[in-house]
Write a structure and sequence with these properties.
By secondary structure, the chain is an alpha/beta fold. The protein folds into three domains: 4-40 and 232-312 and 442-494, FAD/NAD(P)-binding domain, CATH 3.50.50; 81-226, no CATH class; 315-435, no CATH class. It is 37% helix and 22% strand. It has helices at 12-23, 66-74, 103-113, 118-139, 150-159, 175-181, 188-202, 211-220, 233-245, 287-293, 296-299, 304-309, 387-408, 412-415, 424-431, 474-494; strands at 4-8, 27-31, 43-46, 49-52, 58-59, 81-83, 86-92, 95-100, 225-228, 249-251, 256-262, 265-270, 275-278, 280-284, 316-325, 336-340, 352-357, 370-379, 416-422, 462-465. The protein has a seven-stranded mixed sheet with strand order 8-7-16-17-18-15-19, sandwiched between helices. The protein has a five-stranded parallel sheet with strand order 10-2-1-14-20, covered by helices on one side. A three-stranded antiparallel sheet has the order 5-9-6, with no helix packed on it. α6 (175-181) packs across α8 and α7 (188-202) packs across α8 (211-220). The two termini are 16 Å apart. Residues 12-490 form the Amine oxidase domain. InterPro entries: Amino_oxidase, CrtISO-like, FAD/NAD-bd_sf. GO terms for molecular function: oxidoreductase activity. This is Amine oxidase domain-containing protein.
Length: 495
């Protein structure tokens, strides 16, 4: 009897795993709870207008980037992306800084706003980009962290270069320490500029962010950031079509409710009590959602790291979905923005938001004369834990976020034709992520690198991919974890 793998969750991580398994001719079934592929990078439509559910900025499509590398290995063509010269505008209360892909232009822009810090800023970014380049060399071969098998240790060791030793002083260091090293720790606006970039990519700020991963995050934008026509759901749909063409069975509206072992195989049951038997399972779910599916005997087999991290809090998100008339969009308006509404440094609860706008020519998103936009902010899920708090706070954040968007688009109210708030409950409904949690664990010293979760759960034949495991959130991170999970299944099948 052929060995069967079930993928639970049709996000980009799960679909990446499915594509690599299907490419090798293995028997694969993908069960997705919603009616869309892509998970947090999915989409929804209202009439003629299409909105990305969550993630919007494309990364890893440059030559040698993660998506480029994985698509080449699959022989999968993907041409929906366009390179951005201006990645985003970052709006501080008293200044707006354009984030250029070109490093020299970016340095010139930052120095224009902080002329008294020129020497310190140049030294800081020289340090950051040197460290980021070494991290890139280390992770380019896609090693697994933390390594759990001889094969994974071997792959990690072959990734090491003599220059990797330069990373050792930073392993137990934070981004705050790097700022202090260069005398920038008390430069409020500059620290906020750095924190704005870290909160969206690392899920934390410089005070706690791993120096190694923070340096990589501040380097990778300069390798290339992209607008993806329609949205990042295109990655998911290309992967789903690829897997289906190679024999994978794809099922939407199949919400898995339980996993247990029976007669030597795993049995998966969905919301309609339909069962599927498998030899391997790859779950593309956040850790708490994954553990909630397991029978008690399987929970007992989980690794110590999995059990330890299960109760830890993850971020939620509040997102606004807007439709505006083209006429109110400023000329030469970048497609991505970060906006901070005060000098407190709070990067959550609507005081910082990430705004993305559809390209004028993107007919998938909106008809001529209109644009669709999303604006999102991190939020503490404890602030939403009763109906009374939920309804009140949803209104508070909606108003706060609309006011912030007007910083970037002053005539917003003149051209706003529709908007829909997406609070954590809506995210839970759409993605089936418990409580509406997003983004995985913050990339602090406690949760990053060798302290990350492996895709190996401790249960033989069951793997986890997605933003809870190494290398973390974002389409790059979840794709790598999906790839790792698929390769572990394939190695086991070959053995």
């Amino acid at each position: 009897m052929a060995k069967r793998t079930i993928l639970i969750g049709g996000g980009i991580g799960g679909l990446t795993a499915a594509a690599f398994l299907a490419k090798q001719g293995t028997e694969v079934t993908i069960l997705e709870a919603s009616n869309e592929w892509g998970g947090c990078a999915g989409k929804f439509q209202r009439g003629k207008f299409l909105y990305p559910a969550g993630a919007t900025l494309g990364m890893g499509f440059e030559q040698g980037g993660v998506h480029d590398k994985l698509f080449r290995e699959l022989h999968l063509s993907f041409q929906e992306h366009s390179l951005l010269d201006v990645i985003m505008d970052i709006h501080l209360p008293e200044k707006t800084i354009s984030y250029y892909r070109d490093r020299a232009l970016y340095l010139k822009e930052v120095e224009k706003h902080f002329p008294h810090l020129t020497a310190k800023i140049r030294a800081f970014y020289s340090d950051i980009w040197k460290t980021g380049a070494e991290v890139k060399k280390l992770i380019d071969p896609l090693p697994v962290l933390p390594p759990k098998t001889a094969f994974e240790w071997g792959k990690l060791l072959t990734s090491l270069k003599p220059s990797t030793l330069g990373l050792l002083p930073h392993f137990q260091s934070t981004m705050a320490a790097l700022l202090k090293k260069h005398g920038l720790q008390n430069e409020r606006d500059f620290v906020h500029l750095i924190d704005a970039q870290l909160i969206d990519s690392m899920q934390t700020t410089s005070a706690d962010c791993s120096a190694i991963l923070g340096a990589y995050a501040l380097t990778v934008y300069h390798d290339g950031a992209f607008y993806v026509n329609g949205g990042l759901y295109q990655i998911a749909e290309h992967l789903a079509a690829f897997a289906k063409d190679r024999g994978a069975v794809l099922k939407k509206r199949s919400w898995v409710k339980s996993i247990h072992k029976e007669n030597g195989r795993y049995r998966v049951t969905d919301q309609k009590n339909k069962t599927y038997d498998a030899d391997y399972i790859i779950c593309n779910l956040p850790l708490p959602g994954f553990i909630s599916l397991l029978s008690k005997d399987l929970i007992m087999q989980l690794s110590k790291a999995y059990r330890k991290k299960q109760p830890l809090q993850q971020w939620g998100t509040m997102t606004l979905y807007l439709t505006v008339k083209e006429e109110v969009i400023p000329e030469n308006f970048p497609l991505f923005h970060q906006v901070m509404d005060n000098d407190s440094g709070d990067m959550t609860e609507g005081h910082h938001l990430f705004l993305s706008v559809s390209k004028k020519e993107d007919a998938r998103r909106a008809p001529a004369g209109y644009r669709t936009m999303t604006a999102s902010t991190h939020t503490d899920l404890k602030l939403w834990d009763t109906k009374e708090k939920y309804d009140r706070y949803k209104e508070v954040l909606t108003n706060r976020m609309l006011n912030s968007i007007e910083t970037a688009i002053p005539r917003l109210q003149d051209g706003l034709t529709d908007f829909m708030p997406g609070a954590p409950g809506a995210w839970e409904t759409f993605t089936k992520r418990p409580g509406g949690m997003v983004g995985g664990y913050p990339q602090t010293l406690e949760h990053s690198l060798f302290n990350s979760l492996s895709h190996r759960t401790g249960i033989p034949g069951i793997y986890l991919c997605g933003d809870s495991v190494f290398p973390g959130a974002g389409t790059i991170g979840v794709s790598v974890s999906g790839y790792h999970a698929s390769q572990s299944v394939l190695r086991d099948l070959r053995s």
